[in-house]
Automatic annotation (TrEMBL), chain A:
InterPro entries recorded: ABC_transp_permease (IPR001851)
Sorted UniProt keywords: Cell membrane, Membrane, Transmembrane, Transmembrane helix
Organism listed in the record: Gluconacetobacter asukensis
Single GO MF annotation: transmembrane transporter activity
Keyword flag Transmembrane helix: yes
Identification of the protein by name: ABC transporter permease
Automatic annotation (TrEMBL), chain B:
Membrane topology of this protein: Multi-pass membrane protein
Keywords linked to the UniProt accession: Cell membrane, Membrane, Transmembrane, Transmembrane helix
Primary localisation category: membrane
Keyword presence, Hydrolase: no
Protein name, per record: ABC transporter permease
CDD domains cross-referenced by the UniProt entry: TM_PBP1_transp_TpRbsC_like (cd06580)
Lineage: Bacteria, Pseudomonadati, Pseudomonadota, Alphaproteobacteria, Acetobacterales
GO molecular function: transmembrane transporter activity
Source species of the chain: Gluconacetobacter asukensis
């Protein structure tokens, strides 16, 4: 039983890390008022670029870097269309998803089924990693886990809520006209935060193929980008909210593995549905049960609205 | 005299069409460039595409087969768009419709004139059921429907594969991941084109009438344009959102029923072939008008049919998805750019204070 819990928690941390990283990226983009529905495609690009990089140079950090850059490049294209040209964000997001899924499958055609030659190894923290149950899960993981669960959200939280720059960033997402009148560079802030968020989505894809599912295949991302998008709502657009909800959904994913491993009398197909159904339940139930939730978890006021200085 | 660009609030249809044509041409030019860079002869491919789509009878039949589900899924996404709701879950409702239809077709013996309508009814009911929870959550709790409808697509895909591999698996011929052949089929009218095609056409025309010429359609347009004003005017916006989303689920499900009973004849994983997602592209091209779904679906069917040809030339099916994404991306940009017109600023020293400039 203890072994089972330990294994489940370890899987949850790994599976959740992918979602947490992508959700954190989307939090950055949505806080400046841009919905990037292209996460699924960007993650797919990141995943395939990471594999291609580590096949060429067996260094997982280079793979993760390449995945981040691929995501950021895709994000720049998206940000050019939505922030500079100010085209419809839903359409551009769907287009980036189609493009990313199609391109990654085309590029990755020759790499299908090739196991990743280099992955992030486990780096146990001395002493702590031998704690029962939580030791291996939280202190016996690879290094990026700490980056995803602690360093990045802490940085994002500090910048967002404790600096002047963070105030400017949130103002742009709440009321771009007022921010503009106060002299803030609305377009630049939106452009770079969307790009940064897309870079994290690419990194999430790379993290997926460098640790959790170390082999490329078409459809590998399997809706994780969309789950990450839903987690942003569930997280109330907060960095640590994104991290925690990522971990929660990692647990749900791990639950379906445990079910299959222990031969629960449920078909694996139904266990595989759990993360999707869980996500739906988690974004519907809170607002139905507790009405104040809507105000606490409110989206940035200008989310999804392009800002035209000359048209009021 | 200084020239500058000014954003116009409205765009004439001709102007938009011109920009969009430019967008499609740009997207195809980029595709051609990529094909040429990867060592293929674009002219040879273009020739092949034309001959095997509009240039031959078989090509035209295939085009009509692609067109049938696209008309319905395109209309499904278009009707919800009219009330300001995105149904990204047409793919899942398509599967639900196929599952509902297959359940009746496999397990209810009877003459086809009786079984086929029952299959359609069962399929439509399943599709409506599939969108019911997202629709209720959107209408009465304001929950983002893009994500809820989309996530159900993955559930529907898993359920279909489970049924095709598990309980409904064809044990007679042992075909991989597929149910047995359905005992009934939609009769053909022209080559391999079945009656689903004219029915889908008629449904789209009926929807065009319903959305633009009836009280119900008017209420939906107003609800989509300004929800607060519509509610103030006494329009039951929530009930309309629910109704439109259920209609949308039913339409996508009917596409699934046609596909399983008219074209594929068995339920199998991957049956939906991204038709639900391509329905979104059709709806975007149609810009909320059900009548425009006809030319939009035709363009999409042409791209998909061309994709089949490209697959015979060692290109993966995913290349078609990327090309579709590129077309969609270019059109999104063109739609916005169409708003801008060059204006020349007259060198007046003082601006005349007339009331005219307050109006857009």
């Amino acid at each position: 039983m203890i072994d089972l819990l330990t294994g489940m928690l370890s899987t949850a941390v790994l599976a959740g890390g992918v979602l947490a990283l992508a959700a954190l990226g989307e939090v950055l983009a949505e806080r400046v008022g841009v919905t990037n529905l292209g996460v699924e495609g960007l993650m797919s690009m990141g995943a395939v670029v990471a594999i291609i990089t580590v096949v060429a140079t067996p260094n997982p950090w280079l793979g993760l870097l390449a995945a981040t850059l691929a995501g950021a490049a895709g994000g720049m294209v998206f940000a050019f269309a939505t922030v500079i040209v100010r085209a419809n964000q839903v359409l551009c997001g769907l287009a980036v998803t189609f493009l990313g899924l199609g391109l990654s499958a085309s590029i990755g055609h020759d790499y299908a089924g090739v196991p990743s030659p280099a992955t992030f190894g486990r780096v146990p923290v001395p002493g702590l990693s031998s704690l029962p149950v939580i030791g291996p899960a939280f202190f016996g993981q690879n290094l990026p886990v700490y980056l995803i669960y602690l360093v990045l959200p802490a940085m994002a939280h500090w910048v967002m809520f404790h600096t002047r720059h963070g105030l400017a960033m949130r103002a742009v997402g709440e009321n771009p006209a007022a921010a503009d009148a106060a002299g803030l560079p609305v377009t630049a802030l939106r452009f770079w935060y969307v790009t940064l968020g897309a870079g994290l989505a690419g990194a999430a894809g790379g993290y997926l193929t460098l640790t959790y599912v170390p082999v490329w295949s078409e459809g590998l991302v399997a809706g994780r980008g969309w789950i990450a998008l839903a987690l942003v709502i569930f997280a109330g657009y907060r960095p640590f909210g994104a991290t925690l909800s990522g971990l929660l959904f990692g647990l749900i994913t791990a639950l379906s593995f445990v079910g299959q491993a222990r031969n629960w009398p449920i078909a694996p197909a139904f266990l595989n549905m759990l993360p999707y159904l869980g996500t739906i339940a988690f974004i519907i139930v809170p607002v139905v049960v507790w009405h104040r939730m809507r105000r606490i978890m409110a989206a940035p006021a200008a989310l999804g609205v392009p800002y035209h200085r000359d048209v009021r | 005299m200084a020239g500058t660009l000014q954003r116009q609030p409205t765009v004439t249809p001709a102007r938009r069409l011109g920009w969009r044509a430019g967008a499609v041409v740009t997207a195809l030019a980029i595709t051609t460039l990529f094909l040429a860079l990867s060592g293929r002869d674009p002219r040879l491919l273009a020739d092949l595409v034309v001959r095997s789509t509009v240039g031959s009878r078989f090509g035209l039949e295939d085009l009509a087969l692609f067109l049938t589900p696209l008309l319905l899924t395109g209309a499904a996404v278009t009707v919800t768009g009219r009330i300001g709701v995105w149904n990204i879950g047409a793919e899942g409702q398509f599967y639900a419709g196929a599952i509902g239809a297959t359940a009746v077709g496999l397990f209810l013996p009877g003459p086809s004139w009786l079984v086929l309508p029952l299959m359609a009814a069962s399929g439509i009911a399943c599709g409506m059921g599939w969108i019911l929870v997202p629709a209720l959550a959107r209408a009465y709790a304001g929950v983002n429907e893009i994500i809820t409808t989309l996530l159900l697509n993955f559930v529907a895909g898993l359920l279909t594969t489970y049924l095709a591999v598990g309980p409904w698996h064809d044990r007679v011929t042992g075909a991989l991941a597929s149910t047995g052949r359905l005992p009934v089929r939609i009769p053909e009218i022209w080559g391999v084109v079945h009656w689903g095609f004219p029915i889908a056409l008629a449904i789209v025309l009926a929807l065009a009438w319903l959305t633009t010429r009836t009280r119900w359609g008017y209420q939906i347009t107003i609800g989509g344009a300004n929800e607060q004003a519509a509610r103030y005017a006494g329009i039951p916006v929530r009930a309309r959102i629910l109704g439109v989303m259920l209609l949308s689920g039913g339409l996508a499900a009917l596409a699934g029923m046609f596909e399983v009973a008219g074209t594929v004849h068995r339920l199998q994983g991957g049956l939906a072939n991204n038709f639900g997602y391509f329905g979104i592209v059709v709806a975007v091209l149609a810009r909320g008008s059900c009548l425009n779904v006809l030319p939009a679906a035709l363009l999409m069917a042409f791209i998909l049919n061309a994709g089949i040809v490209l697959q015979t030339q060692q290109l993966t099916s995913s290349a078609v998805l990327a090309i579709t994404g590129l077309v969609l991306f270019m059109i999104a940009i063109a739609d916005e750019l169409a708003h801008y017109r060059p204006v020349t600023v007259r060198p007046t020293t003082t601006r005349p204070a007339t009331g005219a400039e307050a109006r857009p």
